[in-house]
Amino acid sequence: MCKTVNRYEIVGSFLRPEALKEARSAFEAGNLTQAELTKVEDQAIADLVEKQKKAGLEVFSDGEFRRSYWHLDFFWGFNGVEHIVRDQGYLFHGEETRADSARLSGKIAFNPEHSVFAEFTSLAKLVAPEKIRQSIPAPAQLFAELVREDNEDWVNRFYPNREDLYADIAKAYQETLRHLYDLGARQVKLDDCTWGMLVDKNFWETMTNGEYDTSALQELYLKLNNEGIQNLPEDLKITTHICRGNYHSTWATSGGYEPVGEVLFGQEDADAFFLEFDDERSGDFSPLRHLPEDKFVVLGLVTSKDGKLEDKETIINRIHEAAKYVDLDRISLSPQCGFASTEEGNILTEEDQWKKLQLIKEITEEVWGAA
């Protein structure tokens, strides 16, 4: 099995415990210092690590407990990127997200004081660095946020030549990843909703007045992601999670992977793809035929959006259905997404969360045998 993935997998984020939510609220209100908040975060992460060990996981996450968002906190850590609050958040299915965003305040550059380094080194005090999979948003995701609506005015101000922007994004990511490597990281996962937006035919027909052709954007997203992970040590494994939106148990887009499968699976330089396949919005498994023989897939067949426990035999049957397109020995199993892509978390209990992981563990042992 590839070192990058195990049979029994997680995507990364976990539900924030109540004590952490209360501490963050107190901090936001000015009633708690940063040092006091960090102490609460440290304890919550230590508890989470013990729960992950008890659950039998072999790769660990800090649950993204030091972040508010899966992506924006990371973007704000770059030099040249600022935190803003827009008039409106993203419109998900039945709910509007908070309105935070990331906008350029200058040229994008590596920041040696980026918060992701403290995230990693803190977790590395609790588990071996090589057993950490550090989750960060993909380069294409940064670009998509920077050109979102009138955020793009600031892009045009600082980068009249878009090729300069692409080059600076790539350089900032490469330097950040090299520094993570120097700290001991050997696994990094790029979380990416850009491809999940491209598969939604209705969304793009609305956006383009009926002209549904995303080929140019696919090539751009591919360029951004691949250049962002160029020139890295060979033993730094890069995976990616392709998402259709995960906010308080709601979703943003629908559609199978076929419109992007040939480019995404065939050409993106990731070692493994974490993919959502938890409901009919995800389409069938046929796009997996585009996956090269040296790449792996982690099937997100167990939803993280609600607490209802899936039927074991149904999941096993779906794994074997996927194996018609990619060899069973290159398949793993995980939740469809994190349990809390933002600090709100999805609408299920912590007990539900761990029952979902126990189910995944049992299924992998049944399908592939005990590790």
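^ that was protein a. below is b, sequence first then the tokens
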Amino acid sequence: MPKQKTHSGAKKRFRVTRNGKVMMRQKNRAHLLEHKSARRKRRLAGETEITGREAKRVKRLLNE
């Protein structure tokens, strides 16, 4: 049987850590940043963990 291909959209948006956590960038940080407060922009910096059923779905897309 041929190898499974990784979902190219998911590959760009998510990553799986060594411990198996699924991480993603937070939303609301791409554009229209001028009117958002500095506090809000700092809070949105970095990545957040996806848990539960969603994490399972993403892992399946990434062949993890």
